[in-house]
Amino acid sequence: MSMPRDEFFFAVGLTFAALISEEVVMHKRHLVFLAAYLAASSPLAFAEWRKIPSKDFSLPPPPAVGSPAYAEDFKALKNAIAQRTEADCALGAIQDQPSLNLFFSGRESPLPLAEVMKAKSLLIPAMELSERVAGFQKDKFRRPRPYDIDPTVKPCVKKPGGSKAYPSSHAAVAATATCLLSALYPEKAQLLTAYGARLGALRVSVGVHHPSDVEAGATLGTAVCERLLLEPDFQEELEEILTAPSN
User: Fold this and answer.
1) Amino acid 23: pLDDT
2) In angstroms, rounded to a whole number, what is the distance separating the alpha carbons of residues 199 and 214?
3) pTM listed for this prediction
């Protein structure tokens, strides 16, 4: 007994769809295996500097609650807030995340973004390392944000997602980035250092960090940079950027 024409074509369609689906799955598997192979074969996959443990870095604790240093910290915070400008708030709103693009795309940047991005293959993972190290310290100290302690502190930017303040990730990442850029552009080192400090101080002005958070973040970010500059595999990557032909 022959199958009706419409049932026949329906069955053929199902079979064809199953074959196509299997082919797609196999193709995806091949792509996954290929990507894994290429990642493992890449020299960057073995870059030890990217795996530096967060626990290799340390910070002193923030000022103790009720101490004179704690009172001075809040006094400096409120002074910074009182003196902030609309431009500070606007810049702080733009730089809500510590990223290469956001840090160096403005008019205040000592280097054009296009120049900075020539080293992005090195800078971005270094900044990610710095942020990871800062996060490790945040989890250790669990210091609340200033506005969570004192409701009279009014941020002029969106409140960060994280509730931990010490150290400032923005300050850490900015210090790492500007320190490494200083190694690439020594003639701009002074301007870059000042700009890194400006990026950190902005987090106080906009009301999301205590001054001691920023100071600790800058210390930590600089320590990450100095450690990286001593790592042989990092030095190799840095040398490649330094000796790359300019366009």
Assistant:
1) 44
2) 9
3) 0.80
Instruction: Give alpha helix (H) positions in 42-168.
Output: 68-83, 86-94, 100-104, 113-116, 120-141, 146-149
pLDDT digits (tens, 9 = 90+) for 7-47: 444 444 444 344 434 443 344 444 333 343 334 344 444 57
Tokens 């150290």 belong to which residue?
Answer: 167
**What single-letter DSSP state applies at residue 49?**
G
Token code pair at residue 36: 């894994």
Residue 239 reports pLDDT greater than 80: yes
Instruction: Please state, in angstroms and rounded to a whole number, the distance separating the CA atoms of residues 229 and 86.
Output: 38
Residue 110's CB is within 10 A of a number of other CB atoms, namely 20
Query: Residue 71: pLDDT band by 50, 70, 90 thresholds?
Result: very high
Over pLDDT 90: what percentage of the chain?
A: 75
CATH 1.20.144.10 fits domain 64-243 = yes
DSSP code per residue over 136-172:
HHHHHH-PBPHHHH-TT---SSPPPS--B-SS-HHHH
Could you tell me if 214 and 169 are in contact, meaning their C-beta atoms sit under 8 angstroms apart?
no
CA 204 to chain centre: 18
Kindly tell me the number of DSSP H helices and DSSP E strands found in the chain: 11, 0
